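Hi R.,

Here's the chain you asked about this morning:
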Amino acid sequence: MNTHTAFRRAQVYNFLAHAFLYPQDNWTEDAELVGHILNEIKGDWRLKIGSWTLDVGSLKFGVWSLELLQAEHRRVFGLAGSQCYETEIGSPHEYRQSQEMADLAGFYRAFGFDVGGAVRERHDHLAVELEFMYVLALKESYAATLERENNLEHFEISVDAQKKFLSAHLGKWMELFAKSLAHFAETGPYVALAHFADEWIKADARRLGITLESRALDQIALTPFDPVESCAGCASADKSESEIELV
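And here is the predicted structure, written out as tokens:
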């Protein structure tokens, strides 16, 4: 049991979770710290040294002010639309969307992960799923430090949950998300971030001993529209364009 590696992994997942949300601070300034973390733990991964995704010597997303970064977030995710939600990509029927959301909720409940708070997103938002992996890695790190007879059980439960969550959810669609973002937005810090997150998750999966599903973007149809799981149920969605005031 390596508590240091688990804690460092948690830090990387936490960085990614915050970076994909609308920026309240400049996450690009933390890239150097993440690079140091990758250098610390690179012996546990077969990293693609020399590629732009997990180049542990030069993890860079460019120099951006907070104002420009916020504008870039609006540009990129405005173009990508709902594809930062797992159930919007590649579910063949709308009923699958509800099943996947229920499965995500089951994962979260089992580990006391509350998605409520001042800033809320759907259970299937990329940032939420990344934050859940952060929590699981923290639990793994904590379990490794416990000096109790049942610490091995807690450790194994947290590791097994990470394997299952990556296989069933985050690792199943992260590659598609990165490809989709590159297709719509072409370039910029968020495209680089998505590619980094994709390669990080693949490397983490290899470390955990699991193989992730790989799917080509042109083989995926977007999930059929379901007003129950979309923004169509929002009060503002019922208003005509002329009724919505811009402030």
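One quick note: Residues 3-243 form a domain with the TorD-like fold (CATH 1.10.3480.10).

Cheers,
M.
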